[in-house]
Amino acid sequence: MKKLFPKGLLAIALCCSAGLRVSAQQKDTVPPVQPPANPPAISPLSMANPQQYEIADITVAGTQYLDKALLLSLSGLSVGDKVVYPGGDQFTKAIQSLWSQRLFADVTIYVTKIEDGKIWLEIGLVEMPRMNSFSFKGIKKSEADDIATKAGLRKGTVVTPALKQNVIGVVHKFYADKGFGNASVRTEERKDSGQVNSMGLVFYVDKGNKVRIDNINFVGNYNIPDSKLKKKMKGTKERTRMTLHPDIKQVYVDSLAQPDDFWKTYGFLQPTRALDKLDPYFRFKLFSSAKFNETKYNEDKGKVVGYYNSRGYRDALILKDTTYKSNSQNLNIDIAVSEGKKYYFGDITWKGNTRYSDSVLTRILGIKKGDIYNLELLEKRLGKQMSQEGGDITGYYMDYGYLFFQIDPVEIGIRGDTIDYEIRLREGPQATIKEVRIAGNEKTNEHVIRRELRTIPGEKFSRADLIRSNREIANLGFFNPEKIGMNPVPNVQDGTVDIDYTVEEKANDQLELSAGWGGYIGLTGTLGVTFNNFSLRNIFRKETWDPLPSGDGQKLSVRVSSNGKAYRSYNFSFTEPWLGGKKRNQFSVSFYSSYQNPYAYSNYYANYYTQNATTTDGHFKVLGASVSLGKQLKWPDDFFTLIYSVNYQQYKLKNYNYFGIPGFDNGTSNNLNLKFTLARSSVDQQIFPRSGSNFMLSAQYTPPYSVFNPNKDYKADPIGKQFNFIEYQKYRFNAEWYVPLSRPMGSDNKTFVLKVAAKFGYISRYNNRTTLSPFGRFELGGDGLSNFAIYDRDIISQRGYPVYYTSDPSVNPESGQPIGYEGFTVFNKYVMELRYPFSLNPSSTIFGLAFVEAANGYRDMKDYNPFQLRRSAGIGMRFYLPMFGLLGFDYGIGFDRIKPGGGLKDAAKFTFMLGFEPE
């Protein structure tokens, strides 16, 4: 047949005896559809005399998998349509439409019959083969799986040249990112005789050797040394190298005789054996693989230019860069730079400012005449890019409602190496907040979010209030902090602004299922549940139970611990963060009870805890309740909260001598106290804080019973009676700071965070006529689980150490409490942690940490020595799972536990956390 259109896009032929066909065909594919068998003969038609016909019928032939009705629809042809033949463009459009689907190797339109002004058509198709299998050869299965996922490979996909090229491109990028810049791919097709029109694809991959960087050479950098420029290239590192002294050259030469395995064992590259090309450097790997990644390399070139700009070289540019193979078949990089002239800031004037004077703006800007020119610094101080840190000129204006504020630095003159600027401001009107909209809260009631907002309709817009609102929403703990959206929508016509907040709910209820070894108590199981977004007002509405009513931001917690007959504990608490619904007045109530029976232990423990081992009903009971009310303060700032709480604990002892105090094994002790807590919290979020601080100062007082009876000597009473009504005064101070060590860029908030903490506690009597009870004191060491206390005592954990009972750092018993130990009355603790988040996903927040800490406890203030401390260091991991809360561990080494001649292993200790972070 004669093709009237080249390159296989369209072919039309007139066949006197075999009918007519219109065809589009791809080269190197399966053969085209054969024409119909014994088509009716029709009379030749002249191409110069086209006729109009009505389509009488259309059939589709050659399809294996595709729906024929759908293909007819895609062709644009249908029965009853008028077409011009020959020469009509309806056939061309139909072929192009089908061809554009990229599903066919051949598209053909046959004219099978023409009669009485009607035409019969047949669309012949050859489908592209389907991929029934694929595999990768020459690489690991894990790598093959990653590539298949990135390329979107799946069985049943149509095999096209574009599909193959896509896979090849993904392979090249996958290995280029890993430093294998010379990877090659070969594709092989394998016919499948078992399935119609299908094939398998095999990708043979040779990733080659890693392309490493031997040297990065800068040319033209007369004012900034190579070392500083290389430091800016974070993603492009050359091999670390050590210069050999000439005196050991012979040793170096002798090393050439070492076998290849010798060099591989120690991570060295084998030196060249050609002595005339002896490399003067002994190369080795140290932390960096020095692999070459083209994407990172291009980014690093921009960083080099940016560094030049920040040093005053605003005209600096990279003239040329070259990569070439070194003698060791690795990569050398030569970068030629043009530094240009070094510039300085000249006069900086202001235009258009009415809110702030020139002197105030100059002070905020912080750039003086004669400072090194730095455009990036200038734009940062002007606030050209919105920053949550504030402190820039745009921030000062926007904090006072100038949402339409604009600022532009304009160069007005260059005098030699000095650049003069005029800063032009357009303050605009102060914007008033019109509407505040909230979306995405599927579970939490809107009023719970709205009451946390600082952006109130009718008030002036403030960027500081917008940022603070974001923090308050995040600290609720109900939403993904990474997905909280804030979008001001200005209305220029009326000078108002609407603010749209978007949130994403996350699971935050917690189920505690744990087991721990509670020191002398033994194996203890715990079942607890905490509903962090509870709704008390819907408690009697069954339709709101899922599993309990939620959405009002209240907290309900129930917890039960037991190990059978020996020990059991019950805890219940409820918190309403906004009592009354109008002010941030936090109201909390809690009840708890515990029971310990030493006779359920072995005879050893029964004798240890009691004076008479023949008794069978000795026990220790604790019953307690607490009511607290917290109020947010306005001064010194509104990060402060003042909390009042009334607490009561009743301790009942029967034949129980746990404290080793003679005469204190039977009786009842009552502890009624009033506690005042002043707290300040400005952390950006709860689970993984990256900025801000926490401070807490508390004072706790029992009634001064001895003051009411100044003539009585309470120490003359029997010891049990002395503790009938406990009296003490107690003070605690905690401080925590969170400092990001590198600023998050874009949406990636993964950054190292330094946490620094200091803690102090002191408990004492009102006067010397009374005896301080063992309750309310401090217990140090352990992890908060192993030193499981059922009595009123503050447990101050220390990683790397068991519970200790003396202030002497050299004494660290592994287990056992000495008889007569009453606890410490003074303690201090210092902590430093370096944290890094591996996952900020709210469904599983994971971060690692390295820590150093020091702590100690003291029997009395006269023994207090803040520098006599037990020291430890180690590493740890934290896993926050919405359903279970905190899971974590630390591996700490107590330096004061290292024995003479012993190793670090003997001083190491694992610490596990379940449900809470030890204090």
Instruction: Tally the helices.
Output: 16
Amino- and carboxy-terminal Cα gap: 89 Å
Query: Which secondary-structure class do the elements indicate?
Result: alpha+beta
Count of beta strands: 38
- Radius of gyration equals 40 Å
Note the beta-strand portion: 35-45%
Major pleated sheet = 16 strands, antiparallel
Oligomer: single chain
Overall description:
The chain is an alpha+beta fold and 919 residues long. The protein is built from 16 helices and 38 strands. The strands form 8 sheets. A 16-stranded antiparallel β-sheet has the order 21-22-23-24-25-26-27-28-29-30-31-34-35-36-37-38, with no helix packed on it. Helix 3 crosses helix 4. It starts with 10 loop residues before the first strand and ends in a 5-residue tail after the last strand. Mean pLDDT is 80; it is low at 1-46, 247-253, 262-288 and 744-748.
How do you describe this structure in short?
The chain is an alpha+beta fold and 919 residues long. Strand 13 (317-325) and strand 14 form a beta hairpin.
